[in-house]
Amino acid sequence: MKSLxxxxxxxxxxxxxxxxxxxxIKTMETSITxxxxxxxxxxxxxxxxxxxxxGQAEASxxxxxxYASLSHVFKAxxxxxxxxxxxxxxxxxxxxxxxxxxxxxxSEIIALQGFINMIKIGVDPGTRGQTLSPKIMADFGKAMKLxxxxxxxxxxxxxxxxxxxQFFGTGVDDACALVDKSMVLFESEKPESTIAPxxxxxxxxxxxxxxxxxxxxxxNQE
Length: 222
What we know:
This protein has helices at about 1-35, 40-55, 65-75, 80-100, 105-125, 125-145, 150-170, 175-190, 200-220. The chain has two domains: about 1-105, no CATH class; about 110-220, Serine Threonine Protein Phosphatase 5, Tetratricopeptide repeat, CATH 1.25.40. The chain is globular, with a radius of gyration of 20 Å. α4 (about 80-100) packs antiparallel against α5 (about 105-125). The relative contact order is 0.08. The longest helix is centred in the N-terminal third of the chain and has 36 residues, at about 1-35. The termini are far apart. By secondary structure, the chain is mainly α.
């Protein structure tokens, strides 16, 4: 009888946990879609706040804080005022820091951290370029080492190399080769779950066009 009671409790607990997990996944899927459908900063504030609430409810999951951070990043792209943009990027780093505490040595988190700091260079290139660039390169390098097939890590590294090449007036061949590699990785990517990061292909296609134009210009100048 005691064994039967234990079995019943186990079944009830497992059923409840499964229902909770399905609810979490569904809520995350809906909220992730909302990020990419957001048309203004207010909508992105709403998604960031939603993910923050999900993170508080699901204390062991890193994905809510990752997407809260991504919401802030997308918001920053819509802001022209540099000081305001910088504050939003700081919020993105804070949210991502919470994700890091839940999942260390995570290629996706580390890659996004480097990406955020890469955007922060644009706020004040003269002051930040020299100090942030080594950290950014280290983040992208680590993210790629942890997961060589992470298309976002490869794309972000390509963007960093492309920007550096333009700044120093050197060739973009290495950067563009990495863009091509990232596109292959995007097209073959098989996310571990429906809420795993899978974004970035659109940006890769945009950089592909820039590379084609830059390489054609360089060829014509020879």
